[in-house]
Amino acid sequence: MNNLFNYLSNVPQDKLLHFFYGTLIAAPLVAFTTPLISSAVVIFIALGKELYDDLSGKGNIEAADVVFTVAPVVIMNIAKYI
Length: 82
What we know:
The protein is mainly α. The chain has helices at 2-9, 13-32, 35-56, 63-80. The protein has one domain (12-80).
């Protein structure tokens, strides 16, 4: 358990922000749509954000950013249907 807390304390702020905004986007989608629709919308937004960052010169496309943005919708959909 200590290793988990040590790992979580070292997650970069950028990734935590992606997780936070992914949560804000996913919550109403999971509540009011199907898992397929909510997942597709969040994935589309996450990929669009990364593409926008790359094309605007604000950053590079990072797979980890997409994963941290999409993780909340996956967690919420699993929790909703268990």
